[in-house]
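Support request, please re-run this one:
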Amino acid sequence: MTTGNDNTHWIEVVDGEGVYPVKRLGPYATARLADRASRGVLRLLNARRYTVAVVPQQAPEDRKQGIGVAA
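Re-run finished. Output below.
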């Protein structure tokens, strides 16, 4: 397995209308688990309004904001 698939991942829910800020769900141990969970989240949301994406913990935005970084 590659380390890219084994690190912590998050689910980002983005409002296409810009009314609500980005919500993050997780953490998930692998990208596969996060992807599976994201499909379930998308079924519960209005797909025309919201977008769901799986992002790794090591994303630059997370490091800047301190999101998902264990203390």
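The radius of gyration is 13 Å. The mean pLDDT is 81.
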